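in:
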């Protein structure tokens, strides 16, 4: 009893310290709008900003978290890391034995992340393993989300899993595919779950795993974003779709020049997404009309993020770009040594991984 009390006291003190969630889940919130209310980084002059790097032993293809002064992320080197953003010293690392593709989740002083076919829950303060779910039969590429006390994620074994977030015990699963399908990260809004699949459909389920509707495209479907009763997503068929969240009825569509693999970012009036055709697009959220587009030097497969005035995204030309949110004019760019993964931002500090195995931290803080 004393050990249990001490454990929960430690978690309480950890959560009440300076470990304030600054970016605690993939794409900011469960609707995956990728909008962050924070100060933008607009200065990319390498003589005036701080550029720090943390090296791992393999490509970093997922977005990190920032909790207080601690960055959390996984690498294809089979390790999950906690790194102090101020000192760049490793707090701890957890060797999972398999590559880590998807972004983690922080909730109630616990970090949840997938590696191989396992889902892990570890303590944020020291990396100690709390539980491991091993019932998935194939690699988990999607990031977990948490609603109340339930953890939801998809696996490439055709299945959506719902677990008790405290114990890791299976609550229910959804599997109605005719062929093996990799499943996108799940989005949540107003009591419903939404996800795309390699079976070319996007699905809506209730929180008990009952199918409400599905919508067929002509290619695998990426992670959707939800805003004001609408579901926004892209497909490998090169089309960006917007559906009614309740019914799954199409509202509008926009044809890009290549497969759309990443997930969109959503503001009040506009939706932003990248395509394999090297363009990032800004569309009117109400009717899908093109507002502007900007061509990078390579395919854009990650998910953009936005602040009140800037959109940030990585490209296969090894660069991270910052564009004006309203007109698409380039504010600045930063060159890494390989393809840049989806970034996060907080208080004029950009953090992102790259296929070069480095975690980059760009800061204009004085």
């Amino acid at each position: 009893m004393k050990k249990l009390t001490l454990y929960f006291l430690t978690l309480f003190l950890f959560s009440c310290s300076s470990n304030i969630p600054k970016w605690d889940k993939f794409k900011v919130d469960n609707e995956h709008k990728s909008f962050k209310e924070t100060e933008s980084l607009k200065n990319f002059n390498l003589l005036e900003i701080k550029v720090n790097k943390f090296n791992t032993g393999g490509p970093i293809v997922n977005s990190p978290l920032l909790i207080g002064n601690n960055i959390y992320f996984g690498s294809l080197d089979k390790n999950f890391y906690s790194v102090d953003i101020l000192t760049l010293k490793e707090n701890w690392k957890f060797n999972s034995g398999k590559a880590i593709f998807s972004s983690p989740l922080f909730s109630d002083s616990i970090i949840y992340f997938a590696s191989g076919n396992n889902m892990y829950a570890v303590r944020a303060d020291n990396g100690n393993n709390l539980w491991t779910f091993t019932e998935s039969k194939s690699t988990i590429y999607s990031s977990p989300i948490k609603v109340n006390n339930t953890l939801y994620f998809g696996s490439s074994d055709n299945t959506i899993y719902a677990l008790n977030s405290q114990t890791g015990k299976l609550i229910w699963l959804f599997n109605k595919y005719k062929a093996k399908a990799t499943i996108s990260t799940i989005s949540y809004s107003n009591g419903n779950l939404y996800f795309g699949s390699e079976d070319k459909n996007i699905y809506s389920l209730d929180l008990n795993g009952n199918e409400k509707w599905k919508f067929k495209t002509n290619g695998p479907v990426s992670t959707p974003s939800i805003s004001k009763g609408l579901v926004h997503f892209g497909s490998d068929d090169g089309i960006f779709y917007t559906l009614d969240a309740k019914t799954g009825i199409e509202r509008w569509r926009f044809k890009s020049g290549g497969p759309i693999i990443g997930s969109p970012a959503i503001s009040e009036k506009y939706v932003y997404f990248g395509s394999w055709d090297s363009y990032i697009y800004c569309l009117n959220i109400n009717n899908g009309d093109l507002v502007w587009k900007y061509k990078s030097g390579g395919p854009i497969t990650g998910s953009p993020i936005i602040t009140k005035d800037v959109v940030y995204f990585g490209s296969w030309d090894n660069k991270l770009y910052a564009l004006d949110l309203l007109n698409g004019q380039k504010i600045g760019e930063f060159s890494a040594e390989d393809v840049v993964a989806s970034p996060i931002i907080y208080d004029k500090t950009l953090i992102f991984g790259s296929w070069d195995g480095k975690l980059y931290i760009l800061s204009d803080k004085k």
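note: Residues 1-10, 13-17 have pLDDT under 50 and may be disordered.
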